[in-house]
Design brief:
alpha/beta, eight-stranded mixed beta sheet, binds phosphoenolpyruvate, binds magnesium ion
Length: about 775
């Protein structure tokens, strides 16, 4: 074992083979002695006192002390050898003294003469001036140092590698016992126990706007290891081998499934499988078993080493692999303990912030919506489907937060600022207060918006604006009542497909659409046909691996190549109408011929229903989503054939600027409020007006007050957005004079500015148009 006074001292590096026999016996002997103390029916403090006494005797040290992290300090919790009165009195900051250094760096310190070390901090109340040699090891839990275990001697002795190993093994046991409350009476101490109470600010990418406060819940539960020490290393080694074999077999089975035939999921699984065969990983676990740990405790020990390394590694590739290894250790623990990684919903806090590495929409929906306040992801992009779902549910979300899972502890207080992509972990009182105020102000604004519910959506110069909702789930329909919106301008049918585990047949789909209509009452609903592909996958379908999926086989392209799928959906939509109007919209139309082919399928379904004597829709209105710029030059042929056009600005902008909407590097690269976008939209509005075709906007652009203001100035009169955006947009438009703004926009089209945002914001300010969210 290497030893160092700085940085990670690498228990990851295995001891040289010739030393193993001697080292392991010392650790095993010590563990065996500790077992009795561990099991004694005494209180936590008494158990801890006995354990430090036992360790001191075994290592033949005059001192053995346990320090536990409490808030910003490492507090002396038990000692044999130092003055008993120093217990719970002596405290060292992280980084202060040798103990603080171990905690800050996660490494081992082994010194024959501690007092000459520059970091040595003398604490008179401990009486430690008489001790010279010092050995300290970190107690690591959840990838973080939660305490330090120290032995000291009067003589200038150098602790052997065998002793270092033994103390490290004991620290593993301490960590697990600590987590289960067996060593420290958690009820008697404040909630900062074992935590770095220091506030931390993490940065990420804003995925869904909004502010949230709550207690952290980690998406994957940490499996508690209760059986720590084992008598028979051979039996434990056999258990480990069996668990690894089980793990490999389950991985092989997964790889045979058609849905993981290709793509990212397969790459991840293959990386897992590779690690499951990794000899180094297995050897480290086997060695830990030889020291007397149970198989599960050995897996945990190696997992903690990996986690600690993760904090210190900056290379993204290596970090990724360490993540894989961490996830694999969790799976192995499931095999060994038979426990599950899932949460019991009843135990979740009343207000919580979910922290996950990545999350699918179905997993998000598994959590109780009434308690879930916000989401933090280590991955994610703003138009990933989990973000779309979160936005639909009005749950603020921040993504790309590096190492969030290891930097946030379960139960940590978290303040999430989705507007600016920042997270405050364990915030100070002032920050928490500021967030609470912001939440209250938002609630107040919402109340004010709610008061606007029955006020007409009419501008100062008398323009009536249609405000519609974007919806994806039945739960969204409730908002028609609360916002008094005019209808559903975009019903994303694919979300219902994405959260199921098999393709819904005609009956299942008819049921969904009929329910949507029922909940919508007399208000119109525009059903968009299946828009899958790109970043929206169905768990039961194999999607081809594509270099450029956003421009690939998706939406209507896929539906026209699989007409049976589209016909199934159209049949269900026709059936669900039962005499009421039916509004159908096709996504990602790139040429008139595609629309014509899709419409032909709809007509076939209408004819089929008629032939079978089924009730027909009252009126059928057919529309197109304009997301591909090529349509602008086909409007002459297209507009006479359609009843309405809806602009999907999310996709349109990525194609207009050739800029991947899911790429976080490019998020602020191009500006929606810029001359080319405004010119494009002006042309479109003009053509639709001439042709008498209804035009609406259903992309995110319609949902932000400033952008929505510009759309109204361009002549757009129908907007569709998520329910929480209705209030701010309505407040904005009721103060706006559209005609005046149009005149102002005329001065901007020819400019060469990258962004017109500041000018437009000033315009709003000067004309008293509120832009609050
Ligand atoms: C769009 O592209 O603007 C749109 C509304 O569709 P989606 O976000 O579902 O792709
Ligand atoms: Mg789209």
């Amino acid at each position: 074992m290497t030893m160092s006074t700085t940085g990670w001292s690498g228990p990851v590096a295995p001891p040289a083979v010739e030393r193993i026999g001697a080292e392991l016996s010392a650790a095993r002997r010590l563990l065996r002695r500790l077992v009795e103390v561990m099991a004694a029916p005494v209180g936590a403090q008494e158990r801890l006192d006995r354990m430090v006494r036992m360790i001191a005797a075994d290592i033949v040290a005059e001192v053995c002390s346990a320090y536990v992290l409490r808030g910003e300090y490492l507090e002396l919790f038990a000692t044999e050898g130092l003055r008993p009165s120093a217990v719970h009195r002596t405290r060292l900051r992280l980084g202060e003294g040798l103990v603080g250094l171990i905690a800050a760096q996660g490494g081992v310190i082994n010194l024959p003469e501690a007092q000459s070390h520059p970091a040595f901090a003398y604490r008179p109340e401990t009486g430690e001036e008489i001790y010279h040699s010092f050995l300290g090891v970190p107690i690591v839990h959840g990838g973080r140092v939660i305490g330090v275990l120290v032995v000291q001697n009067r003589t200038q002795r150098h602790y052997s590698e065998e002793e270092v190993e033994a103390l490290q093994i004991v620290a593993t046991v301490f960590a697990e016992m600590f987590a289960s409350g067996g060593l420290v009476d958690t009820a008697a101490f404040s909630s900062d126990l074992g935590r770095i109470g220091r506030p931390e600010r993490l940065e990420g990418l804003r995925l869904v706007e909004g502010v949230a406060l709550g207690d952290a819940v980690l998406h994957q539960l940490r499996i508690e290891v209760s059986r720590l020490v084992a008598e028979d290393p051979d039996a434990e080694a056999a258990r480990l081998e069996q668990a690894i074999a089980g793990l490999r077999a389950s991985m092989d089975e997964l790889l045979l499934l058609p849905e993981v035939a290709e793509g990212e999921q397969r790459e991840v699984l293959e990386a897992y499988r590779m690690f499951a065969h990794d000899a180094g990983w297995r050897r480290r676990m086997s060695e830990a078993i030889r020291t007397g740990l149970s198989a599960e405790a050995a897996v945990r020990r190696v997992q903690e080493e990996t986690r600690l390394r993760m904090v210190h590694v900056s290379d993204p590739y290596l970090k990724e692999r360490l993540h894989d290894l961490d996830a694999l250790a969790d799976r192995l623990l499931v095999h060994l303990t038979g426990r599950s990684l899932m949460h019991d919903p009843a135990t979740l806090p009343a207000e919580f912030i979910l922290v996950a590495r990545s999350l699918g929409p179905a997993e998000l929906l598994d959590y109780d919506r009434s308690r879930l306040r916000g989401v933090i992801l280590e991955e994610g992009s703003p138009t990933s489907h989990v973000a779309i779902v979160a936005r639909a549910l009005d749950i603020p979300m921040v993504g790309r937060v590096e190492a969030a899972m290891s930097r946030i502890d379960p139960g940590d207080r978290v303040a999430l600022d989705g507007d600016h992509g920042q997270i405050f972990v364990r915030p100070g009182e002032d920050v928490e207060l500021a967030f609470a105020r912001s939440l209250a102000a938002r609630a107040e604004r919402r109340r004010a918006y709610a008061a606007l519910r029955d006020e007409p959506a009419v501008t100062q110069d008398g323009m009536r604006v249609g405000l519609h909702l974007n919806a994806a789930f039945l739960i969204d329909l409730v908002a028609l009542e609360t916002t008094n919106a005019d209808g559903i301008g975009l019903y994303r049918t694919e979300l219902a497909f994405m959260v199921r585990d098999r393709f819904p047949d005609v009956e299942a789909q008819t049921e969904i659409y009929a329910k949507v209509r029922e909940l919508a009452g007399d208000k119109p609903v525009v059903f968009r046909t299946l828009d899958v592909g790109s970043d929206k996958h169905l768990p039961y379908w194999t999607f081809p691996h594509e270099e450029n999926p956003a421009m690939g086989w998706r939406a209507l392209r896929m539906a026209l190549d699989r007409p049976a799928v589209l016909r199934t959906q159209l049949r269900a939509l026709v059936r669900s109408a039962r005499g009421r109007p039916l509004d159908v919209m096709f996504p990602m139309v790139a040429e008139v011929a595609e629309f014509a082919a899709a419409k032909e399928l709809l007509e076939m379904e209408l004819a089929r229903a008629e032939a079978r004597g089924e009730p027909l829709p009252g009126a059928v209105r057919v529309g197109v989503m304009l997301e591909v710029p090529s349509l602008l030059w086909q409007l002459r042929a297209l507009l006479p054939r359609i009843d309405f056009l809806s602009i999907g600005t999310n996709d349109l902008l990525q194609f207009l600027f050739a800029c991947d909407r899911g790429n976080p590097e490019l998020i602020d690269r191009y500006e929606v409020l810029s001359p080319p976008v405004l010119c494009f939209l002006r042309e479109l509005v003009e053509r639709c007006r001439e042709a008498g075709v209804a035009l609406s906007i259903c992309g995110e652009m319609a949902a932000r007050p400033l952008e929505a203001m510009v759309l109204l100035g361009l002549g757009v009169r129908d907007l569709s957005m998520t329910p929480s955006d209705i209030g701010p947009v309505k407040a904005m438009l009721r103060s706006l004079r559209c005609g005046q703004l149009s005149g102002y926009l005329d001065q901007l089209y020819h400019l060469s500015d990258h962004s017109l945002r500041d000018r437009l914001r000033h315009y709003a300010l000067d004309h008293g148009v509120p832009l609050h969210i």
